[in-house]
Each structure stands twice: as structure tokens, then as C-alpha cells.
Amino acid sequence: MNVTTASVQFTGSAQSYLSPTGVEVAFILIGLVVLGSALLVVTVRNLVHAALWLVVCLGGIAGEYLLLGAELVAWVQILIYVGAIVVLLLFGLVLTRAPIGHTDELDVKHRAPAVVVAAGAAGVLVTVVVDAYRKVWLEPRAAVPLGTGAANGAALFKYWVLPFETLSVLLLAALVGAIVISRRGADGDSDEPESVGTD
Amino acid sequence: MASTAHWWLEVALRLVVILGFFLVVPLLVGQMEHKAMAHMQGRLGPMRAGGFHGWAQLIADGVKFAQKESVVPADADRLVFQLAPAVALLPYLVALVVVPIGPGTQVGVALDLGLFFVLAVMGVGVLGTLMGGWASANKYSLLGGIRTAAQLMAYELPMLLSAASVGMAAGTLSLGAIVDKWQWWWLPWQLIGAFVFFVSGLAELQRPPFDMPVADSEIIFGAYTEYTGLRFAFFLLAEYAGIVLLCLLTSVLFLGGWHGPFSAHLGWLWTVLKTLALAFVVIWLRVSYPRLREDQLQRFAWTALIPLALAQLAITGVVRVL
Amino acid sequence: MTTESEQQSEQQPQTGPASSDPQREPRASRDFPGMGLVKGLATTFKTMTKHAHTVQYPDQPPELPPRTRGVIALLEENCTVCMLCARECPDWCIYIDSHKETAPAPPGGGRERTRNVLDRFAIDFSLCMYCGICIEVCPFDALEWSPEFEYAEFDIKELLHEKDRLREWFWTVPAPVALDPGAPDPKEMAQAQKVADKRLTAQKAAEIVALADGGAAASGQPERSGPGRSGPAGGAEGDG
């Protein structure tokens, strides 16, 4: 992965050892890995294995970002999703119940509706994205300057300041909500310890 | 074609040098730990292996580890159990690739977002410990894994914030550029940040006094309890590689990396010296302080380090604007 | 009255700080945040700069006190096979075999005497717990502590030391501590001295008689056997 980025940067304008089709081939291969691991995440009968396949899936997506020249997004993907979210997920699993071997409770009855919803969402997203960027051709190596920290920072704080700040307000609201919920649980603890326990 | 071949040769050479660094310097730190810790406790430490003051002790240890049987517990999740040491060790090797040790081209790969990359990859290493802890099918290992995860989540934030402070000060996220812009007065300016970064890095590596996840007196050796032979050695190597990486990063970010007399020629030497001095501090702290309790660990991170890191960010911002 | 109370109230604040100052000073420095952490670091660093306490044993002999209890030695000549040591041994690790010998009656009259002859005396150091009771209990000082400790074996059976080996250890028993100056001689010494003196006077009397007779004088032989019986201490000293 590193070598690829280095090559993308290094051979900015000169002849590349990877032809453009090479990048595309790599993109498709990693995409297949991502798709396969994503399927495994939802089909594997072992909770922790599912979380670990999620690591592969999210790491693969980071690789895709990298191939598209979005370096910052790729590292953020690894830092936040692989390094923090999955660790949090695993922490939660291990702390509650994560037996070694199969977990039969993972077989939900609503499998068919779930497949329908997932396929529908994927179909809508793919259609919208393909339709929106049908005419746009992004040369991967030309896109590299767009993915640097400086370019992202400029874009974020010059043109997208308002959405960014709105998002931070949303996060703040989520934070306050989390605190409120946890506080209410603590108050209820003294009044009705049993109901909290069953929650 | 010739230029491509040349490029490949250069990349291979750099990777070999980095691999050598990765394999030798952690052993150096390990040997230093043996000797410094021994003398701090009024002992001599290893004296026999290799003849002169036990210099070959860790090589002997490595040979011993290689000879040992690699046991996988019967109830363990085999694949995850066997994969965990590699997941713990490799991120540090990968992270080492982007850390510059000298001016100019004395770096594996000069990434524009080197700081981000290093911190992102360092966080992944903990995943290996977590995997090992869960897959061992052992209560102690599981407890160690849980503690590791809790510690990572508590200390990742102050570490990132203090690293962000340096990025703000330098106006770049490239490690090489940060060192290029470093001035001596950054030392007092970023002092709080350096403290927060170093301490939370220690906590992330589970080094004493933050070694609750491997507290041998209560949970044997945490996530590593069931490991034997080479796999155990990999975990140990990961710990020392982590120390090397943390000290290297601290010296590059906060202590000016290769800056020093004759830095044009001996820049790499300064980086290595600063790194080893910091590694000595890591060992020194281990010998001097008792282990923090789990609640103390969490309280220290959330009520001391994060406010300090935020204060450092504010100071950095104010000075930058002025 | 008011002046007195004023004086007292003036005196109290004066004496107060003066008396509490030496106490408050170190406490203030201890209360300074992080002082304890710095002290911890200083302690370990200071220890590092000092010489290590480790003695590299096989290369460098340890400095043991002269009366170190390393191994139990036997002075066979002093043993009367009274069996006290074997009976007192908590581990039953002392093995003694003996037989009786009958000495013929002395020509001057009297009856023939029996005495015990030691055939085997062995201590099993794989059982011994080094309590030293056998040495305490021996009435004839036949057992002594030796500071030697390097007799580890690959085979546990080799730790059964027979009397030859126990006798060998006795060469390493240090000389007994000298008596205080002016102290009376030990009982056996005084007795031996008395015997020696008596023989000396007898010899002198014999010499005088011989001189008067003009015959040759025999000397030395009986005198030497006197101090030889003075005890194990003398024997050890002589051997050492």
C-alpha cells in the first residue's frame, strides 16, 4: 500500500511502472476483497470474527481511497475506523459476550427483509453515484494533489465551513444526549435498581 | 527502464535499512533495560552471555524462544490466536517507514501526511493484543485484552491532540517538514504537549507505570499469558519496537529530531541519540514508579491529560496567531 | 493581669512558628506537587551510579563470615559412639555403626576394659536441615561446623558423606575464638596442665636421681603426650 502511494507521488508526471489500467485492476481487486469481507461480516457465525472481518473491509476501503489519491481520507479511515471504532466494537463484544465458536443467536429470523433493505440501499446509492459522476473522469495521479492535508484543509475550512460546523453541533448534541442518558440511568439506579439491571 | 530499476533498488535498500533498524534498535533498548534496571536496583544484570557484560543476552533469549514449543491452547480460536502476534508487530514496522531520522532524504518514504499515518498505524497494533486476549480462551487473557482496549481508548485522544498541536505549530503534517521548521523555543512552547504525548504513548504501549493490562501479579501476563515460543517473542519485540517508535516520534516531533551541532552530516546520529535518551527515560520510569490502578489510569487520562492537551492546543493556537 | 496575658499572647506566636518551623519545612517541600515523583526518580538514578551489590559468585568467592555454617565436620578421634547426635537429629540423617573392643587388663592390676570403636559415621546432607543440634549436643566436640559449602552433587546419593569425607571437612574448621585475656583456663586445659606439671616434677626428680647416678637422661617423650590430650581445639590448631 505504501509503495503504491509512493509511486503515485513519485511518478507524478513521468512514466509510471503501473499503467493506469494497473491502478484500475488493483482497485477492482481490492474492491472484491472489500465486498467479500463485508459479506463475511454479516454471514460469519462468530461475533469476534465478524468484527475482525470488518477490519479487513474497512482497511480495504482505506486502500481504495489511497488508490483514488485521497491520502488524508485513507489515513483517517484507518485511524478512526480500524484503530478506534473496531477496537471499541471489540471492547464491547469482549466485555459482554463473545464466546469462542459459533453463536447461534446470530441467526435472525428477518433475514429476507434485511437482504431486501440492504440490496435496495445499495442499488439506490450505486444508481445515484453512477448517475452523478457519469461524465467525470478522475485521473488517479492527477487527483493526488487534491487528497493532501493542505488541499483538504483548504476545502474544508474555505468552502465547506458551514456543513463542517453544523456537523460539529450535531456531534455535540449527540455527546450531550449520551451524558443525559447515562445520568438518567444513574438516577434511576437509586430508585429502581431492578429495572436498570434488566435494561 | 533503467530509472525504474534504479528506483526499485533504492526502495529495496531503504526497506532493508529500515528492517535492520527495526530488528536491532529494539534489542538495543531491551539490553539497555536489562542493564539500567539492574543497576538501578543495585544489581549487575546479565553478565555471562557473549562474554563482555552479557551483551548477547537478548540474542540468547531469541535462540531460546525459537527452540521452544509453540503451544496453542485446545479451546483457543486457532487462526486468530496465531495471527495476533503479527498484527501486533507489523504496524510498528510499517510506521517506522515514514519517520525521518535525518535531513533531506534520510527517510523511508516521505509522506505528506506522515504524522497522521504514524498515529493511525500505531493504533492498529493494539488490535493484535485484543485479538490475542480474546482468542486465548483464558480469563486472564480476556481481562488483559479488555484493559488494553480501555486504555487505548482513553489515551488515544490526548496523544492525537498533542500531536495535532505540533502539526498546528509547524503548519504541516509531514514529519520531515515539522522537524525542518523546528526552532529551539518550540521546546518550552510545546512542553505540555511533549509531556502529554510521551505519557499517553507509554500508556498505549502498556509500559509501567501504565502496565495494568499485563499486571503480572493479578492477571499473569494479560493477553500474552497463553503465548509461548516465537509468538511470545514477537509480542515482546512489538513492545520494544513500540518503545523505539514512541521515542523516535517524540524526539522528531518535540525535541527537534536531527537538530544539533553538525546536523548537516550527523543529523541521524542526533535523532538516534535523542531516541535512546528517551528510551532510557522509559526504563527509568518503569523502575521508579509503582503500577497505577485501573481507575487511576482512566481518571489520569480523562481529567489530567486531555485538559492538558487541550490547553496545549490553545497555547499553540494563540502563539501561532500572534 | 492584662499585661501578662498580652505577654503570653505575644510569646505564643513567637514560640509557635519557631517550634513548628523545622517540622513544617520538609512537609512543605514534600507537599510541592510532583516532589515525590522527582524523589523516586532521584533514588533510582543515585542507585544506578553506585556500585552494584551483586557478587559474581563462581568467578569471585563470596565473603562469608568465618563461622558460616556450611557443612558438618567430624573429628573421628574424639567420637566415643555415645549416639547422642544420632538420637537428637530431627531428620535421622546420622548413621553410626560401631563395635566393642576389649582392652586387656593393665599389668598393674584391675579389670579389663571395653571401649567403643567407630566403624561407620555418615551424615546424609540430602536430609540434613543444618539445625546444628548434633554439634550442640556432642559432649566431646567431635562435630563442628565448617564454612565450606561447595559440595553440590549431580547424584543425590553422593550427598551421603562417610566418615573419611567428614574427617576431611575437619581440616577446614576454623580455630576456636581465643579466650578473653586473663580468663581462667578451660577445665581440661587446667587438668592437662596439672598432669604435665606432675610429670615434669617427676621427671626432674628422676633427672636429679639420674644425675646423681651419672646415667644418661631420657627426655621429651612423656611430656609431649600431655598437651596432645587437651581437646579437639588443640588438635585442630595443630593441624591447621
Automatic annotation (TrEMBL), chain B:
It is an enzyme of class 7 (translocase). It comes from the Bacteria. Keywords: Cell membrane, Membrane, NAD, Quinone, Translocase, Transmembrane, Transmembrane helix, Ubiquinone. One of its GO terms (biological process) is aerobic respiration. The keyword Cell cycle does not apply. The chain crosses the membrane at residues 12-30, 79-101, 113-136, 157-178, 184-203, 232-255, 267-287, 299-319. GO terms for cellular component: plasma membrane. It is a multi-pass membrane protein. It is found in: Cell membrane; Membrane. Its EC number is 7.1.1.-. GO terms for molecular function: NADH dehydrogenase activity; oxidoreductase activity, acting on NAD(P)H, quinone or similar compound as acceptor; quinone binding. InterPro entries: NADH_UbQ_OxRdtase_su1/FPO. It catalyses: a quinone + NADH + 5 H(+)(in) = a quinol + NAD(+) + 4 H(+)(out). Its main location: membrane. NDH-1 is composed of 14 different subunits. Subunits NuoA, H, J, K, L, M, N constitute the membrane sector of the complex. Belongs to the complex I subunit 1 family. NDH-1 shuttles electrons from NADH, via FMN and iron-sulfur (Fe-S) centers, to quinones in the respiratory chain. The immediate electron acceptor for the enzyme in this species is believed to be ubiquinone. Couples the redox reaction to proton translocation (for every two electrons transferred, four hydrogen ions are translocated across the cytoplasmic membrane), and thus conserves the redox energy in a proton gradient. This subunit may bind ubiquinone. This is NADH-quinone oxidoreductase subunit H. It comes from Actinocrinis puniceicyclus.
UniProtKB/TrEMBL annotation, chain C:
One of its GO terms (cellular component) is plasma membrane. Its cofactor is [4Fe-4S] cluster. Its EC number is 7.1.1.-. Residues 1-15 have a biased composition (Low complexity). InterPro entries: 4Fe4S_Fe-S-bd (IPR017896), 4Fe4S_Fe_S_CS (IPR017900), NADH_quinone_OxRdtase_chainI (IPR010226). Binds 2 [4Fe-4S] clusters per subunit. The keyword Iron-sulfur applies. It catalyses: a quinone + NADH + 5 H(+)(in) = a quinol + NAD(+) + 4 H(+)(out). It holds the Pfam family Fer4. It is found in: Cell membrane. One of its GO terms (molecular function) is 4 iron, 4 sulfur cluster binding. Gene3D superfamilies: 3.30.70.3270. It is a peripheral membrane protein. Residues 1-35, 213-240 are annotated as: Disordered. It comes from the Bacteria. Residues 70-99, 119-148 form the 4Fe-4S ferredoxin-type domain. NDH-1 is composed of 14 different subunits. Subunits NuoA, H, J, K, L, M, N constitute the membrane sector of the complex. Belongs to the complex I 23 kDa subunit family. NDH-1 shuttles electrons from NADH, via FMN and iron-sulfur (Fe-S) centers, to quinones in the respiratory chain. The immediate electron acceptor for the enzyme in this species is believed to be ubiquinone. Couples the redox reaction to proton translocation (for every two electrons transferred, four hydrogen ions are translocated across the cytoplasmic membrane), and thus conserves the redox energy in a proton gradient. This is NADH-quinone oxidoreductase subunit I. It comes from Actinocrinis puniceicyclus.
